[in-house]
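Dear support,

We are seeing what looks like truncated structure output for some complexes. This example has two components. We would appreciate it if you could run it in full and send us the complete token output so we can diff it against ours.
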Amino acid sequence: MIAASVKQMGHLAKQAAFLMAKASPLQKEEALVVLADKLHEAEKEILEANERDQCSARLAHLSEALIDRLSLKGRLPSLANDVKKVILLPDPIGEEFEIQTLPNGLRVCKRRVPIGVLGVIYESRPNVTIDVAALTLKTGNCAILRGGSETLQTNLALLSLIQQALQKASLPPHAIQMIATNAREQVAQLLQLDESVDLIIPRGGAELHQYCRTQSRIPVLTGGVGICHLFVDASADLPRAIEVIFNAKTQRPSVCNALDTLLVHADIAERWIPEVIMRLKKGGVSFRVDSQTWQLLQRILPSLEGIHEAQQGDWDTEWLSLVLGIRIVENIDQSIEHIRQHSTGHSDGILTEDRQQAEQFLQDIDSAVVYVNASTRFTDGGQLGLGAEVAISTQKLHARGPMGLKELTTYKWIIQGDYHVRLS
Amino acid sequence: MIAASVKQMGHLAKQAAFLMAKASPLQKEEALVVLADKLHEAEKEILEANERDQCSARLAHLSEALIDRLSLKGRLPSLANDVKKVILLPDPIGEEFEIQTLPNGLRVCKRRVPIGVLGVIYESRPNVTIDVAALTLKTGNCAILRGGSETLQTNLALLSLIQQALQKASLPPHAIQMIATNAREQVAQLLQLDESVDLIIPRGGAELHQYCRTQSRIPVLTGGVGICHLFVDASADLPRAIEVIFNAKTQRPSVCNALDTLLVHADIAERWIPEVIMRLKKGGVSFRVDSQTWQLLQRILPSLEGIHEAQQGDWDTEWLSLVLGIRIVENIDQSIEHIRQHSTGHSDGILTEDRQQAEQFLQDIDSAVVYVNASTRFTDGGQLGLGAEVAISTQKLHARGPMGLKELTTYKWIIQGDYHVRLS
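Here is the complete output from our reference environment:
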């Protein structure tokens, strides 16, 4: 079932896309139900393949932390559950909207349709394979997947289940395909396939996104990298603000919506920054602080353990760990200036009791999600009621911020007349 | 007012974009009113610059038809009117939508904002300069323009008015800038400016679009190329179908929504194709027909003047002139197959009285606009009530088909809480 070349895969995907666009909601549901079942039934084969990947990883001296991320042991029920959640979401395809009858009698509407063929390039965790397949299938799209080389055997085992499920529901098995080698040049080929692939979705670090954006002649969905800021104004409810910061930094530090830089109004810096540091140290956080904060802390604190003066580049680093940058700013304008310069346009917020300052911040900060008095951790499809999350877009076109099923669709205009001709 | 390098222009545009996003509707209106006025007041300077362009064009032995397209003589009132029309359209910026309060009390909405900086690359007619400037300004965006080399002097004269109008309204003059040389490498530089430019909009032929798509690391709005089809089913009201085809082909043959290929159901081919040809010949149309039609016509028609057998590549040609391809198909499936293979995904339609066939066609044809019983000429922002037309997109992301002001915007999520933290 694995196609000979990437070009050939594109061709097969495009044919499959024609059929997938017509698939009924029931057919798609059947495929997903079968897939969820097979994740139980085929546990043995999947875990064997997964074991082979882990052996190779050990031979290649990968870290135990990484090897643990690859492991599916005990995690298959959770994968099956993810599929079941997607089954319960409403099918977005076929919805008609902006329905109107023009003065000349033409009936016009937009009808929601799949985008077509997605190229999804991702790293490490094999659950992404099932996740992407379920979302792709639900939205009537097709996908060419390219997973991490460390999980190739696991991914191939999962792909086999996915294709069996498609066939069981009389859907084209080539709707989901996989580039099944570790060679880098096949990724480059995929990025050139603008005849058959409609959208590239990288899921990984900044480097992967950058590579796709510079190499692809297909539109690329950029996102997933978040250098997130919170500005604490002098008017903020400071004890509650500390808990928001604690949450934004420590609740899950390895993800893109975790806090990276705290900007503090100068008027409250001296009395409040030491409190923040003491509270966050309890969560295991260490700090990179600007020189003004550094001088302040040297004066005040008995120990500077876990606190360092910020180096060049620190403000442009997505920490993805228990590190927090702290900088003192003179006023809201300076905080906006800092964010405009260093934000990746993901999630940035203000903590304030001053309505006017809040409105200025909402106006001037042009990020995918802008917050007043809340943790940046809410930038998440599940938290915002989208059901599933496809990705978090930090680009401005098509979709911005958390993307759900609807954002994996497009529309066509449908115009119905009575042999209408245009007069002028 | 002309920046030294393209990179520098990008930097200035990005600064201007921050201010333009905050411009009030009144400020933007003032700038547009001043621009419309200046197009009257500065008639003499503009026409002098335009005369210089025409002299250069004559020296370069450009065709008289092309030189006529460059001319603004007598056309300035119409340009001013286009600006006035944009003034009357509603300002899309700042609108809030999908407003909701989550169960945890977070207030969430999306707010419509400008995209940012547009790079617009276009050819020939200088009215595009005013058109794009007005739409850009109304939507709070900024633009770096690169017009055709044949109209450089005219465009610079128009740019000067635009920048004066911006200044008069206390808006940053660098909101609209222009690459003021004829050198090709500056276009290449513009396409690499992903730090400051958010979207590339090519307005021109297929070659320009292709160039941008392959060279740009910025998202490109692809569109404007339409190989448009109509399939006439045996059940269609044939006399009325002929008038739709006449309209689609002859009303304005040089534009992208004009008909290129007529597909005729075999059951009606023999009696009806000769009628179509006789009617369209009165409109000056000539024909490229498939071999089956060719044999049929040889048998039936007294003269084959203006009729040729189709050559390889003809079905993939956007005629942009009074040429029509005609092919006989066995049934609707074959028409869909032909369209899937040769359409550019712009505008395709069916003429039929059979509701089921119409629905199959609407389902299976994945073009930006799909028609039942109407001329393809309606694919137009003005005709479909969008007010202004920015472009017609044939890509699937962001916007599809006619794009109005709203399609030159994006949104940001706004989340307001009461020191909310995420619990799981």
